[in-house]
């Protein structure tokens, strides 16, 4: 009996692959010592032998996790988090973005920051504090929920609408839509439509902490923290101290063995 057929009889065959001398050939290799010395007649003995082969491998060979195990098992894929902006870098980026916003608007008292739920709302609160520090006066801040205006609910799944909070009328305001990530651009398109239903702002701008590419619409941020080229399978996470207990921007990779 060839060794490859032994490994097929292991209790969790999909987890195991033999790395040395396991290729089935026309001339099967000799049985491993453990197996040939104690031919398994009873099922108990068979199980004992399988167990030992599973744990330690046959003598002179080694086993590793099968690269194909994800096809057979329900365990989540391995994930990997890479830091894009540290806490200090994020702080500097926020200060830069706030300065750029103040440089762009004619009158900072007409500013209104509207965050897009959920992370964009938290980010807009942090930015509003920074803008208040720099400008020396209060900054109107709220939230605009785009859920009812989305054209991609099939893609992203059913969403619970979040609250829209407008601190004042949007008429005559210089509105900055704030989001943590811009990806396809569909969230921003829907947010623009939602905003339009509340009135006619004098000007609408977009601030995104991370532009990760893959746009499906001609929408670009006016203010951007960092452009991060990504794969579609990756995600970007903005972490804020107030809500997450840590601060920074991270790229989360889903690594699947090929
Ligand atoms: O450009 P898009 O392809 O529309 O993607 C970007 C949007 O996706 C994320 O929000 P998400 O809907 O995942 O909710 P979250 O803010 O709660 O993470 C992110 O905060 C943006 O709003
Ligand atoms: O990378 C992404 C894409 C959409 N939403 C996120 O929060 N991150």
Describe the structure in your own words.
With 258 residues, the protein is an alpha/beta fold. The chain folds into 2 domains: 3-72, no CATH class; 91-225, Rossmann fold, CATH 3.40.50. Helix content is 32%, strand content 23%. The chain contains 9 helices and 10 strands. The chain has helices spanning 3-8, 33-37, 43-56, 69-72, 87-104, 119-135, 153-156, 186-196, 241-244; strands at residues 16-18, 63-65, 78-85, 111-115, 140-143, 174-182, 203-211, 223-227, 235-239, 248-255. β6, α8 (186-196) and β7 form a beta-alpha-beta unit. The two termini are 29 Å apart. Bound molecules: 1-O-pyrophosphono-5-O-phosphono-alpha-D-ribofuranose and uracil. 1-O-pyrophosphono-5-O-phosphono-alpha-D-ribofuranose (PRP) is lined by residues 116, 118-120, 179-187. Pfam families: Pribosyltran.
Question: Could you tell me how far the N terminus lies from the C terminus, measured between alpha carbons in angstroms?
Answer: 29 Å
- H/E element sequence: HEHHEHEHEHEHEHEEEHE
Q: Are there runs of 5+ residues with pLDDT below 50, and where?
A: 1-75
Corresponding CATH architecture of the largest domain = 3-Layer(aba) Sandwich
What fraction strand? 15-25%
User: What is the overall silhouette?
Assistant: globular
**Largest sheet, described in full?**
5 strands, parallel
CATH class of the largest domain reads: Alpha Beta
Secondary-structure-based class equals alpha/beta
Mean pLDDT metric:
78
**Structural domain tally:** 2
Number of strands: 10
Instruction: Say what the CATH topology of the largest domain is.
Output: Rossmann fold
Helical stretch count? 9
Strand line-up in the sheet with most strands: 5-4-6-7-8
What's the helical proportion of residues?
A: 25-40%
């Amino acid at each position: 009996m060839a060794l490859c057929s032994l490994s097929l009889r292991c209790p969790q065959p999909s987890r195991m692959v033999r790395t040395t001398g396991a290729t089935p050939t026309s001339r099967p290799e000799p049985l491993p010592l453990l197996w040939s010395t104690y031919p398994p007649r009873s099922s108990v003995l068979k199980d004992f032998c399988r167990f030992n082969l599973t744990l330690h491998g046959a003598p002179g060979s080694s086993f590793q996790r099968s690269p194909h195990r994800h096809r057979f098992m329900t365990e989540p894929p391995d994930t990997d988090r890479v830091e894009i902006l540290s806490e200090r870098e994020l702080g500097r980026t926020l200060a830069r973005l706030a300065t750029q916003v103040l440089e762009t608007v004619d009158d900072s008292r007409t500013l209104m920051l509207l965050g897009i739920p959920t992370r964009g709302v938290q980010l807009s609160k942090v930015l509003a504090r920074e803008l208040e520090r720099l400008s020396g006066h209060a900054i109107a801040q709220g939230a605009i929920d785009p859920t009812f205006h989305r054209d991609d609910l099939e893609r992203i799944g059913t969403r619970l609408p979040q609250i829209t909070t407008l601190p004042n009328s949007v008429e005559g305001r210089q509105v900055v839509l704030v989001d943590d990530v811009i990806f396809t651009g569909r969230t921003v398109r829907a947010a623009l439509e939602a905003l339009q239903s509340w009135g006619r702002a004098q000007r609408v701008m977009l601030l995104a902490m991370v532009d990760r590419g893959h746009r499906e619409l001609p929408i670009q941020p006016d203010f951007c923290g960092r452009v991060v080229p990504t794969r579609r399978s990756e995600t970007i996470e903005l972490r804020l101290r107030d809500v997450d207990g840590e601060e920074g921007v991270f790229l989360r990779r889903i690594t699947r063995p090929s």
